[in-house]
Specification:
There is one protein chain. Helix 3 runs antiparallel to helix 5 and helix 3 packs antiparallel against helix 8. This protein is rod-shaped. It is an alpha+beta fold. It has 3 domains: about 70 residues, no CATH class; about 110 residues, no CATH class; about 140 residues, no CATH class. Strands 3, 6, 7, 8, 9, 10, 11 and 12 form an 8-stranded mixed sheet that branches. A two-stranded antiparallel ribbon has the order 1-2.
């Protein structure tokens, strides 16, 4: 064969033991090499025209294995993992945890921005208190007591009827059911507080002023004697003025302090007869100035109302009906001691200006209302803030 053919043949029919031999098609898929196998990655050079053992390829050492290409840097969302944790399951878990934390933070931030239920929770109880207080303390209670009571009962009933469902909703989702449950509890409490405090103001200050204003006003009344149409002069009787609310006496009316007396039952209930300076033997004694704890036990030092003011010539009807029986007992004692007759005693506050006194009563009720309005708003704001912080709805 020619040298070219020889060259070809020599390269094709190499010894099985030579480095150029390949593994059989069956068996282990990994080629095996003898002990004198050149290193992996070596290149072979066979000079042209060479044959025989001398023509065996020479292994030429090649450079070492190429380093792997650099990987793209992985984004670290949390910023807390070090360089050693950029790969592997630990990094994946940390990224998932950080993503979940961000979702929770964004959810809480969205809740804080929802001001509508917070606005209702702040103003709902406060407005309910104002409504129930006004319906209990002021003119609507005096003019329409049944309607006032029905309104307050409906408010309380509505809150109590929603309380059970609101409680279940809160147990299932504390954050979503918080405002409904909070409104049910606070509105019911505000309605009850407004009812109780309003009733106190009504019966203590407003009801007496409304009632006395609805009664009859008499002027130029002689407290001792009255002239009949036939010309006779008879003692003034209280039964003739049973519907009197305000009485303006004649200019010569005065208090008979020498016949003042008191009845004691824990407090001192003081009475003094109102008479005319022109009163003789046969005078009426049915008009009495009264007051509580404003005299001594024997009736001396009577300072009730405006007893020391010479300009006081008017009487404003006593409207505290629970105190009337004690003043009647004081009149009985005074009549027995001073030999007087008082068949129909009527009790008055001795004053200069009864209209101004009525205004003072009403202003006391309005003053309590204003104080309660400001105090309950502060309580509503403080209670809502505490509840929101407890539920972690605000930071």
């Amino acid at each position: 064969m020619s040298s070219r053919g020889g060259d070809f043949a020599s390269t094709e029919t190499a010894d099985p033991r030579s480095p150029m031999s390949f593994a059989p098609p069956f068996g282990d898929a990994t080629p095996t090499a003898p002990a004198d196998h050149p290193p992996v990655g070596a290149s072979f050079f066979v000079p042209r025209g060479a044959c025989g053992p001398a023509s065996m390829p020479r292994a030429v050492e090649a450079p070492g294995p190429m380093p792997p290409p650099p990987l793209e840097p992985t984004m670290n969302i949390s910023g807390s993992a070090g360089e050693a944790k950029l790969y592997g399951a630990l990094m994946d878990q940390e990224l998932m945890h950080d993503a979940e934390s961000k979702k929770i933070a964004m959810s809480r931030r969205r809740r804080r921005l929802n001001c509508v239920p917070m606005f209702y929770a702040l103003l709902g109880p406060w407005l309910t208190f104002l409504a129930t207080f006004c319906s209990s303390a002021f003119a609507i209670h005096f003019n329409a007591p049944v309607g006032s009571t029905v309104f307050k009962v409906l408010v309380l009933g509505l809150c109590l009827s929603k309380l059970q469902s609101a409680w279940r909703s809160w147990r299932m989702s504390p954050h979503d059911g918080f405002y409904v449950l909070y409104l049910c509890i606070t509105v019911a409490a505000a309605a009850l507080l407004g009812w109780v405090l309003g009733d106190f103001v009504f019966w203590s200050y407003m009801e007496p002023s409304y009632a006395v204003s609805k009664m009859v006003t008499y002027t130029e009344v002689d407290p001792s004697a009255m002239h009949l149409p036939d010309g006779r002069v008879v003692p003034t009787r209280g039964g003739r003025f049973s519907d009197a609310g305000t009485v303006y006496f004649t200019h010569d009316a005065e208090l008979d302090l020498s016949r003042a007396y008191s009845f004691k039952l824990a407090d001192l209930y003081c009475v003094a007869p109102i008479k005319s300076e022109r009163c003789g033997e046969d005078c009426g004694h049915d008009f009495w100035a009264v007051g509580k704890n404003c005299c001594s036990e024997d009736g001396k030092d009577f300072t009730c109302g405006q007893a020391g003011n010479k300009r006081a010539k008017s009487g404003l009807r006593l409207m505290e009906t629970k105190e009337v029986p004690f003043y009647r007992l004081a009149v009985v004692e005074a009549a027995g001691k001073h030999q007087m007759v008082s068949q129909h005693p009527i009790f008055f506050h001795w004053l200069v200006d009864p209209v101004a006194e009525i205004h003072i009563w009403q202003m006391q009720g309005y003053r309590i209302f204003v104080i309660a309005m400001l105090a309950t708003f502060a309580m509503s704001a403080a209670g809502l803030a505490h509840a929101l912080k407890t539920m972690h709805l605000i930071s």
